[in-house]
Amino acid sequence: MKSKNKNLTSLSEHIEAQYGKQGTKKREAFEEGFEAFKLGVMLQEMRKEQGLTQAELADKCGTTKTYISRIENNASDIRLSTLMRIISQGLGGHLKLSVEV
C-alpha cells in the first residue's frame, strides 16, 4: 500500500519557500547562480565527452586549468568572450544565446 505524505512539497514550492517568489532579489540571485552552475556542468560534460582533461582544454583555448576548474565548479564569473573561445577553440562548438523577457 502506498501512503501519501502530506509534508511533501514540489521543487518549485521548496525553491519559493527558500528564496521567495520570482522577481524578488533573493530569488533572482538564486536563479542567476543556478544558471552559472548549469553552465559549468554543461562545459564539464562536453569536455569529458571529448576525452579532454581540464589542462588539455585550457591549452586549446589559451587559459589555465585553474580557470577551467573554477568555471566547472561555479566559483568564477566568466566573460562572454572567454566562454566563446572555450566553446569554439577548446571544444570545437558554436555558442548560441537566447534571451527571455
Secondary-structure map:
Blueprint: H1 11-19, H2 25-49, H3 54-61, H4 65-72, H5 80-90
Helix pairs in contact: 3-4, 3-5
Percent of residues in helices: 55-70%
What is the CATH homology-level superfamily of one domain? Answer: lambda repressor-like DNA-binding domains
Order of helices and strands: HHHHH
Instruction: Identify low-pLDDT runs.
Output: none
Let me know the number of strands. Answer: 0
Helices, by number, come to 5
Overall pLDDT: 89
Please give the CATH architecture of one domain.
Orthogonal Bundle
| β-strand amount | under 5%
Q: What is the rounded Rg? A: 18 Å
Q: How does the major sheet shape up?
A: none
CATH topology of one domain: 434 Repressor (Amino-terminal Domain)
Task: Give the terminus-to-terminus CA distance.
Answer: 46 Å
| Text of the CATH class of one domain | Mainly Alpha
Query: What spatial form do the alpha-carbon principal axes imply?
Result: elongated
What does the model show?
The chain is mostly helical. The chain has a domain at about 40-100: lambda repressor-like DNA-binding domains (434 Repressor (Amino-terminal Domain), Orthogonal Bundle). Helices cover about 60% and strands about 0% of the residues. The longest helix has 25 residues, at about 25-50. The chain is elongated. The N and C termini lie far apart (about 45 Å). The mean pLDDT is about 90.
Feature tags:
single chain; 101 residues; mainly alpha; 434 Repressor (Amino-terminal Domain); 5 helices; 60% helix; 0% strand; elongated
